[in-house]
Amino acid sequence: MSGRKITRVATAVALAGVLLYAVYCVIVIATHSDLYQWDFRSYYYAARASADGGNPYDPADLSRVAGGGNVLRFVYPPVTLVAFAPFAALPYSVAAQIWLVLKLVALGLLIYLWMKHVVTVRSEIAFALLVLFGLGRTILVDLAAGNISIFEQCLLWAGLVCLLRRRTWLFCLAVLIVSCFKLFPILFVLLLLVLPNVKQRWSALAATVGAFLTILGLDYARDPARFTHFVATAVAIREHGDLGDPSLLAFIRDLADRLGAVAGMPLGGMAPMLAYGAAAAAIAIITLSHLRALRRSGSFDSAASLILLFCVGYALTLPRFKNYSFILLLPAAYVAQRDLRRRSMQWLFLLLLAIPISPAIPIALPGSFNLRIHWHYHPLLLAFVIWLFCLYQTRFPFAADQSSSRGARPMD
């Protein structure tokens, strides 16, 4: 048997193993609906509480309609309850299974969009490992949590593909729908200003932002008390890496708490917020300035690569970015891994991207100072690496990417 044939067989076996493990995970989630999909449980009982005239943002009301069970807070605007109402009309066990099946369909469509329109897959096994295990197993976490993130990403990437195809208004519609749930995706309309050859960029931007504010305004006018409860619930959220929020703000807060404990003085209050604000502003300014400079110079013609850079900058600057939200960065992570010059570096970076790291690694420093770096934040640290790579790649495209010997670059 030739070496090439052995490689193909080994790749097929590895892909089969990855697929079997994914099927196993889905079966476990589907057969233990009482243990998994806790976010969907929140959506389901919030819709039921709303239908019964209760307050979907009151944990007591959620617990009441759940028969005394523990239910997470509902954290989306009141208008989104319309999307969950059909599920609330079904028994929970049935609704949870339907939700999971629909998510798997959306996941398949999302992967298709990535492979067809965003990245050129040169190694199927590397891509499969990254999708299943990448960035803190972000997709598996979302399936287990029952969050809307896969639906969000599927619709958002469909909109981004429309933008690549110069279908500006379909992109705006997708961004608008997604933003009704998690609000921050409205920032993706900034792509209208930084990508080249966008039709009606200013009118589309004004219309999308205007529609978004109108929806929120009507939502408030319909029930001011309920909308106020939503705002209070959203503002009160404060999570950390160990609670599934490896965002920049959570990292700075955790770091400040630990440094304050070592120094014997509190470093809380406004200091972490100011540090976060400065860091997020720097990342946003660098990212957007870089994108605008490229558009004006016309020196780089891969719109998909610019979108990937925007996605990473977006993820790094948000004050709350849950572990399942890192699905957004999987295409950029694959491109960063794929386009490293040395094959050995490709597999090393894939290892860092895909293999879960120990929750905490103690690092002994001189003297009595001992800092424990919590690897709950390793998706965030990897996102920084990917961001730097994207900055370099979009400014200085590798010569190898411009040759046919290594395949096509991300679609323009």
Summarize the structure.
With 412 residues, the protein is an all-alpha fold. The protein has helices at 3-31, 38-51, 59-65, 81-88, 92-118, 124-145, 149-164, 168-182, 191-194, 201-222, 224-236, 248-263, 271-297, 303-317, 330-338, 343-354, 378-395, and strands at 360-364, 370-374.
Quick one: overall form? globular
Query: How many domain units?
Result: 1
Radius of gyration: 22 Å
Task: Report the mean per-residue pLDDT as an integer.
Answer: 84
- Low-confidence segments, ≥5 residues, pLDDT <50? 358-373, 396-412
Give the termini separation: 40 Å
Residue share in helices? 55-70%
Number of helices: 17
Widest β-sheet, arrangement of strands:
1-2
How much of the polypeptide forms β-strand, as a percent range? under 5%
Oligomeric state of the chains present here: single chain
Main sheet?
A: 2 strands, antiparallel
Structural class: mainly alpha
Order of helices and strands: HHHHHHHHHHHHHHHHEEH
Number of strands: 2
